[in-house]
Amino acid sequence: MKVYFCGSIRGGRDDVTTYQRIIQKLKSYGSVLTEHVGSDTLSSWGEAAVAEGGDRAIHDRDLDWLQQCDVVVAEVTQPSLGVGYELGRAVTMGKKIFCLFRPSSGRRLSAMIRGADDGGAFTVSDYTEDNLDQVLEQLFRNSHPIS
Asked: The pTM is what?
């Protein structure tokens, strides 16, 4: 299974440690195409300064990965225009989408994300640091049997 993980880059890197934990767990379900989102060396300036081709190359590469993936997992606690864009494109592509939100952050999740939860192809799950692994296991169990 190919997993596309979404997390904030230019919108803020406050949750990078959480992204790393999620990515490690996702690796137990398949390959994570966007593992770089959890990199400690990636700043809120993003990759454009080092990526050949700049923003266009990043956009095109990421859309290619989005096309290839079997499931999209997005950590949506830190607001991010890029994550919202990726989710919109994934919906258009008919991808299975799991959004993870941490209410303890004190933020309120956008109604456009929370309201998209249809209990099937687009799922939003609240989590805590303590139950993150169990939430992911439940999402994947309900979507694909875990061997």
From this structure: 0.93
